[in-house]
User: Which sequence fits this backbone?
C-alpha cells in the first residue's frame, strides 16, 4: 500500500484573505464543495480575525456554519488572539491554528504584538484550547525569512517551535510566509525541527514567490513530513507581509505526490473544476505549473472523443 500524504487546503483562508473583491459566503462554500468533490479532506477553512484588518474573513462564522461537516473532512480555524479563539469556538471549531511569526516586526504588523507578547499570547491560546478539549496547530511563520527583518536564524525557529510545543500544540507547521526560502535552507530547518520534535506532528506551509515551494515540499517529504499546506490554483498571500505570493498550488502538489506513488486521496483531474470556481469567484487567472499540461490533456481527450463519435 502506498504511503498517505495529507494535503491541507488553505485556499479558503490564506488564498482568499488578500483578495480585494469580497467573495460571498456561498461562493466560499461552493469552492469548498468543489475541493471536497476532488477528494480534499483537510482544510484551514477561515480565520476569525478582525474584519477591519481582513474584510474578506468577516463572514468566518457564516462560512463555518455552512461547512459540510458530514463528509469525513477535517477543518481548522486560524485564530490570532483570544477573541478570535472564542469566536471560532463558539462557531463550532474544534481545531485551532495559531501563527507566531519569527520576528518582532512581523508580529507587530500582523497582530499588533511584539514577539514576546505574541509568544505568550499563543501559548495561552494553545493551553486554553487543550484545557477545553480541542486540538491546535502552531505555525512558526516567516521561518525562512521575514519581509521586514530578513534572515531568521534556525536557533530562533527552534526556540519558538519549542515554546509552542511546550505549551501543548498538537501539531507544528513551519511556514515560509513570503517564499524567501530555498531548498538548502529548507533542508537545514526541517532537519533541525524533526530532530527536536519528530516528523509525525510536523507540517509545512510554503508560499511560492520564487518557485522554490515544490522543491522544498519534496525535501520536507524526504525528511519525513507528511502534511503539506497548499492553495487551489496557487491563490494566496498575506496582507501584512509585502511581497508574499500565493501558496504552492494544490494541483501541482497533489500531482507530484500522486505521480510519485504517494496517496493524497485527491483526483487531480477533478481539481480543474475547483480552479475554475476559484477563478470565477476572484476574477483572477489562476492555476499552478501543471495548467498547460492539464489543458493539453483535455484537448487530446476531446479530440479522441470527437474521432470516436464520427
Ligand atoms: P488589535 O487592533 O490589536 O486588537 O488587532 P484590539 O484587541 O485592540 O481590538 C481592536 C478592535 O478589533 C476591537 O473592535 C476588537 O473588538 C476587534 P472595536 O472596539 O474597535 O470595534 N477585534 C476583533 N474582531 C473580530 N475578531 C477578532 C478581533 N480581535 C480584535 N479576533 C488583531 C489584533 C489580531 C485582531 C488584528 O491585528 C488582526 O485581526 N490581524 C489580522 C492578521 C491576519 O489575519 N493576518 C493574516 C493571517 S496570518 C498568515 O497569513 C500567515 C500564515 O498563512 C502562515 C504563513 O504563511 O506564514 C498563517
Ligand atoms: Mg501563509
Assistant:
Amino acid at each position: 500500500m502506498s504511503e498517505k500524504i495529507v494535503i491541507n487546503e488553505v485556499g479558503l483562508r490564506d488564498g482568499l484573505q488578500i483578495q480585494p473583491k469580497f467573495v460571498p459566503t456561498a461562493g466560499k462554500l461552493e469552492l469548498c464543495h468543489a475541493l471536497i468533490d476532488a477528494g480534499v479532506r483537510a482544510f484551514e477553512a477561515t480565520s476569525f480575525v478582525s474584519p477591519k484588518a481582513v474584510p474578506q474573513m468577516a463572514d468566518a462564522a457564516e462560512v463555518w456554519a455552512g461547512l459540510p461537516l458530514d463528509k469525513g473532512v477535517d477543518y481548522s480555524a486560524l485564530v490570532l488572539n483570544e477573541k478570535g479563539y472564542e469566536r471560532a469556538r463558539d462557531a463550532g471549531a474544534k481545531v485551532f491554528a495559531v501563527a507566531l511569526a519569527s520576528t518582532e516586526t512581523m508580529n507587530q504588523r500582523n497582530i499588533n504584538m511584539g514577539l514576546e507578547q505574541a509568544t505568550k499570547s499563543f501559548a495561552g491560546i494553545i493551553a486554553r484550547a487543550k484545557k477545553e478539549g480541542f486540538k491546535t496547530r502552531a505555525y512558526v511563520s516567516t521561518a525562512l525569512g521575514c519581509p521586514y527583518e530578513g534572515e531568521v536564524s534556525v536557533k530562533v525557529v527552534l526556540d519558538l517551535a519549542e515554546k509552542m510545543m511546550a505549551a501543548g500544540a498538537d501539531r507544528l507547521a513551519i511556514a515560509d510566509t513570503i517564499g524567501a526560502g530555498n531548498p538548502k535552507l529548507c533542508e537545514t530547518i526541517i532537519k533541525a525541527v524533526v530532530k527536536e520534535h519528530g516528523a509525525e506532528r510536523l507540517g509545512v506551509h510554503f508560499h511560492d514567490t520564487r518557485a522554490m515551494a515544490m522543491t522544498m515540499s519534496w525535501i520536507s517529504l524526504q525528511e519525513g513530513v507528511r502534511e503539506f499546506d497548499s492553495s487551489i490554483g496557487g491563490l494566496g498571500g498575506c496582507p501584512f507581509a509585502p511581497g508574499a505570493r500565493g501558496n504552492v498550488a494544490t494541483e501541482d502538489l497533489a500531482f507530484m505526490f500522486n505521480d510519485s506513488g504517494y496517496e493524497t486521496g485527491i483526483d487531480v483531474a477533478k481539481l480543474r473544476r475547483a480552479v475554475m470556481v476559484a477563478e470565477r469567484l476572484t476574477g483572477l487567472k489562476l492555476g499552478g505549473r501543471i495548467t498547460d499540461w492539464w489543458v493539453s490533456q483535455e484537448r487530446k481527450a476531446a479530440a479522441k472523443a470527437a474521432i470516436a463519435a464520427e
User: Anything to note?
Assistant: The first strand starts at residue 6 and ends at 9.
